[in-house]
Design goal:
Strand order of the largest sheet: 3-2-1-4-5-6-7
Distance between the termini: 50 Å
Strand content: 5-15%
Shape: globular
Helix content: 40-55%
Largest sheet: 7 strands, parallel
Radius of gyration: 17 Å
CATH architecture: 3-Layer(aba) Sandwich
Mean pLDDT: 95
CATH class: Alpha Beta
Low-confidence stretches: none
CATH topology: Rossmann fold
Structural class: alpha/beta
Bound molecules: NADP nicotinamide-adenine-dinucleotide phosphate
Length: 249
Amino acid sequence: MNDNMPQPANLLGTVVVTGANRNVGAHLAGRFIDDGYTVVAQYRSATDALDALVERGAIAIQGDFSDAAASQAVADRIAAAAPTIRAVVHNASTFSPTNDDPAQAAEQFQAFFEVHMRAPYLLNTRLADQIAAPDGGAGDIIHITDIYADNPGPQYDIYCATKAGLQNLSASFAKRLAPRVKVNAIQPGPISFESWVSEEQRQAMLRATPLAKTGTPEAIYKAVRAFMDNDYQTGAVVAVDGGKRLGSN
Ligand SMILES: NC(=O)c1ccc[n+]([C@@H]2O[C@H](COP(=O)([O-])OP(=O)(O)OC[C@H]3O[C@@H](n4cnc5c(N)ncnc54)[C@H](OP(=O)(O)O)[C@@H]3O)[C@@H](O)[C@H]2O)c1
């Protein structure tokens, strides 16, 4: 991997994507490369998708958002690799129902807090002074949250609460970093299903989604780019969910 390689010159600038080694994160990173950006691809596990991004010129930075020191170390390495940053997309996330065992749930809470809240907080704080658009306009921070940050499912309370925390941090950073940096949040609805989600649950989810289909990683990319392309939007939360948040009648 080409961890910490210096940033090549690029007129559009450098975009940092966390969790870039699979699914939505890999798609976002690939699409930014398609569109001419330099990409810093933060990842935890090595994957073929990550290798493909590196082959296309992405700067790969490995790290596990497991505690403050580890997240701070990732932030320092991104700061060194990309002296100026056009945008940071906080995509890394972990998802599972809350464990029935209270001791296990407590550990789960810590892990979810680290990846959904503390790592974005530490990266934003460390990188804030480096975030800017090449044309002198505002740079962007984009937090990927979830429609369930607003309307939590009790079985997933720890996931939902920590995603809500991430969403709340969007508002704090939007105030703190204005007018130099815009900070916005995207709430995906069902884009893909974890392997452990049953066919019955998948069909129920689709029946409860007005557009009656899952979304695509490309729909998330379009929402990310819409924030980046709009110079009068900060502290906003946009759902990309096929209407799922509206609930079914
Ligand atoms: N997919 C959906 O239907 C859906 C719905 C609502 C919201 N979202 C949100 O959309 C975003 C992308 O979703 P997705 O389905 O592509 O997610 P995903 O497949 O679960 O991928 C999550 C990414 O986060 C990384 N990650 C998890 N814990 C980490 C940690 N402690 N340190 C560093 N990296 C860590 C994973 O790395 P590893 O590969 O090493 O595990 C992976 O790259 C997420 O923020 C998710 O919450 C997705």
